[in-house]
Amino acid sequence: MKSNIKLLIIAMATLSMGVMTGCKRGDDFFISPNNPSKVTPALLLTAIEVSTYNSYEGMLVKNASVLVQQNAGVDGQMLPINNYLLAENEFDNQWGQNYQALFSCKQLQDQFGAANPYYSGIADVLAAMNWGIVSDLWGDIPFSEALQGQDNYTAKYDGQEQVFKGIIALLDDAITKLSMNASANELLPGADDITFGGDVTLWTKTAYALKARYLNRLSNKASYSPSDILASLQKGMQSSGDDFITKHGDAATERNQWYDFQQGRANYALASQPFVDSIKLRPTDKRLTAYFNTFDTTGQVIGSPIATPSSEASDWGPYLAGGNTTGVRLISFTEAKFIEAEVKARQGDAPGAAAALNAAIKESCSTVTNGAYDGADIAIYTAANVDLSRVIYEKWIAMFGSVEPYNDYRKTGFPKLVVNPNGRLPVIPTRFPTPQAERVSNPNAPVPTLTTPVWFAQN
C-alpha cells in the first residue's frame, strides 16, 4: 500500500472534487483527453478503483442494508431510509459518482486500450461493476448513449435486460484481453492497480465471478442458464485468496468508508434486531461480534427494533469498520459458493446444494472472523433440509456489507422480513428513486414508484 500512496491520494482528491461539486456525469471526475500529457493509464486506473471502492462501501450499500434489515436507520439521514422515505435529491452524488467512474473507464479504453489490453481488460471489469450496481438499484438506466459526450444529458434509458447483456459482454471482453501475452502490452499495470497489483490471473477470476453473479440475476427469466453459471464459477474464485478486497490508507481521504461513516455519524445506522436475533439463534456463531461491537452497558450485541429505532444498539465491529485501513470484500469466494448453492437448489440437486451451502457458510465464518471460527458446527445442512429459502437466508447473514442481500431479497422474497409497520410504504422499497438532477435534466428519465420492481426481480 505504501508504494502507491501518492497515486491513491491523487485519485481520492480527484474523486472528492467530483463528489462535492454535484452530480454531472463526468464533468469533474473525468480527466480531460485534451491534456494527454497529464494523463496516464496508471493514474486513471487508480482513480477508477478508488471510486469503485467508494461506491461499493458507500451510501448505496448502507441504504440497501437498512432496507434489507441488516442495519436499522436510527438517526440522521438513515432514519428516513428505515421508514421507506427515499428522497430523490439524496441520490444525486451517488448516481453521478458511478457515471464519473464510467467516463474514466471509457477514457482509459479510448486513449490507451488498444496498446494495453491488460489495462483495457481491467477497465472492462471495473466498468461492469459500476454499470452493475447502478442497474441493480435503479433498473433501466442510461447505457448505450450514456458516455457519448460529457454534455449529453438526454441519453436514452435502456432496459435492464440490455444493460445486463452489456455487462456480460464487457466481462467476456475482459477475459479475452486478460488472457493475452504480456508482450502484447506497451505498459503493464503494477502498483497503480491497488486491488491486485497487476495480477491479471486474479482479475480474470474476478471477471468470471462477476459473470456468474449477473447470469444468476436472471433466475426469474427464460434465459436463465444454470450450466453457464456453473461454468463461470469453475473458472472464477477458488479460495478467499482470490477475493476482491478494497485497499485503504490512514489519511483522511483514504479511509475505509464504513469506519469513516461510523466515526463521523455515530448512531445513524446500528445493528438491527431481526439480523442480530437471527445470528443469535446459533449462539456459537462468532460472526456476530465481528459484525458488531458489544454494547457497553450489557456486554452483549444488541439490535435496534425496525419499527421503533433505538440508539441503545450496537454499532459496526471489526469486520467492516475495524479501522481506517480495514479492507472490505466486494466480490468473494464466499459469494461464489452461495451462487453455486442457489443454482443447485433450483436444479433440484439437493446434495450438491447442501455441500455448496455448507462450504459457503464455513468460508464466511472463517473470513469474517479472520480465521478464529470455522463454522463447522453450524454448516450442517443436508439434502433433507436445504432449499432456496435456506440458501438465501444464510447468504443474508453471511454477506453483511454487500448490496447482494438486497438484490436477493427483491428477486426471491427471502429472507421473510416483516415490513416496518411505521414505514411510509406498505412494502419494502424495491428500487431507489430516480435522482433529482437526472429527472430534471434528462427528459428521458422515467420516474417509477419505489414499489415498482426492477426487471430482474419481476416474475
Secondary structure: number of strands: 6
CATH architecture of the largest domain: Alpha Horseshoe
CATH class of the largest domain: Mainly Alpha
Order of helices and strands: HHHEHHHEEHHHEHEHHHEHHHHH
Number of discrete helical segments: 18
Tell me roughly what share of residues is in helical segments.
40-55%
Q: Using only CA atoms, what is the Rg?
A: 21 Å
Uncertain ranges:
1-37
Under CATH, the topology of the largest domain is which?
A: Serine Threonine Protein Phosphatase 5, Tetratricopeptide repeat
Largest sheet: 2 strands, antiparallel
Distance between the termini: 45 Å
Describe the strand arrangement of the main beta sheet, using strand numbers.
1-5
How would you describe the shape?
globular
InterPro entries: SusD-like_2, TPR-like_helical_dom_sf
Protein name: SusD-like starch-binding protein associating with outer membrane
Organism: Taibaiella chishuiensis
Signal peptide: 1-21
Characterize the structure shown.
- Pfam families: SusD-like_2 (PF12771).
- This is SusD-like starch-binding protein associating with outer membrane.
- Keywords: Signal.
- The chain is mainly alpha-helical.
- It has two domains: 41-236 and 425-449, Serine Threonine Protein Phosphatase 5, Tetratricopeptide repeat (Alpha Horseshoe); 275-316 and 332-400, no CATH class.
- Helices cover 48% and strands 3% of the residues.
- It has a two-stranded antiparallel ribbon. The chain has a two-stranded antiparallel ribbon with strand order 2-3.
- α1 packs across α5 (92-113).
- It starts with a helix and ends in an 18-residue tail after the last helix.
